[in-house]
Amino acid sequence: MNELVQRLSEGEHPVEASLRPGKTATALKESIDRGYVHIRFTNTRGGTDLGVRLDREASNFNEADFEHQTGKVQLVGNLTLNYVKVRCIADIDLATLEGKGYLEPVEG
């Protein structure tokens, strides 16, 4: 398995919602509505920015208040990183747009 994929699959790692032009809960909500978010693993060399196609069934938005920028979301989705199919799971606090995340290798 690829070294980066293996490292990000072991334990939880600091992540942030990677948003442009502004890093706001509203911008995150717009990304969620499009079904595609960018999650940045901040503790890799230079950071690792992943584009994640959301799995709405697996993600959790029940504790999110985007209007007041409070609560948290769990973003879950699949992508391919360095030729390895993985599932990204990230818990993001809407006040800071930071949290913890990890990857799970997907068989097949």
From TrEMBL:
Protein name: MbtH domain protein
UniProt-listed Pfam families: CBF_beta
Annotated spans, Disordered: 1-22
Database matches in InterPro entries: CBF_beta (IPR003417), CBF_bsu_sf (IPR036552)
Organism: Fischerella thermalis CCMEE 5268
Superkingdom in the source lineage: Bacteria
